[in-house]
Amino acid sequence: MQLRTYYPTVVLSDIHLGTPHSKKEEVSNFLKSIKCDKLILNGDIIDGWHFSKEGLSKLRLKHIQFFKDIMKMMENFGTEVIYIRGNHDDFLDNVATRTLDNIKIVKDYIYESHGKRYYVTHGDVFDSITSRMKWLAKLGDLGYSLLLLLNEKYNNHRIKHGKPYYSFSKVIKQKFKSAVSFMSNFEKKLISLARTKQCDGVICGHIHHPENRYYEDIHYLNSGDWVESLSALVEDEKGNWRVHHYYGEVLVPMN
Description:
Layout: E1 5-12, H1 24-32, E2 34-42, H2 48-54, H3 61-77, E3 80-84, E4 98-100, E5 103-106, E6 109-113, E7 116-120, H4 128-132, H5 134-160, H6 168-175, H7 177-196, E8 201-204, E9 211-215, E10 218-222, E11 231-235, E12 241-247, E13 250-253
Parallel strand pairs: 1-2, 2-3, 3-5, 7-8, 8-10
Antiparallel strand pairs: 1-11, 4-5, 6-7, 9-10, 11-12, 12-13
Helix pairs in contact: 1-3
């Protein structure tokens, strides 16, 4: 039997189940390697935009396995699950603020630990494109999907020639000044909101860029994604947070 690593709290976001680029097997392997008291699913877990185009016939057993793994954690370890809706799973607005067994579905959440308060939100509310111009956001989502497809073809070629994986799609995004400016503005808005809510930090997702840093007195945490970064936020028993990246069967601490 595989030994599980214990973390009091784990945060996952942006898995985009249902899309061809979702690392569903990797995230299931990750869940099977841990146990936690609280699992926060911080938005875009299910990609409702994709299902609205393709239909539920595209839902595969590998997607359902993710939820089976979570139910096993709830049953075996008493894990509490907080599901915060994102922009791609905004269909959950109809059931937000509901509690189903040990799963709570909410629009945002205040997490308290070791005397600190964290405001937890997916973060799309601060993205004017996704919140006000959904048609343009979906167009951008299509472009992102095409970029990921090219990235996959490129890396298949690299692997055949004995070269390691290289995410040129991620590099391209980070090199555009507009993207860098957007991320900076996104973070600053969340930091400001955390202060308004009298919190010590903010935990978000949405921009697929894992982060663990301080803006003066406010702790900014982003759980990244399971499309490119394969990252999670984990809290240890002393209340310290780390970003971990998943490589094969190993979780690698990044900071």
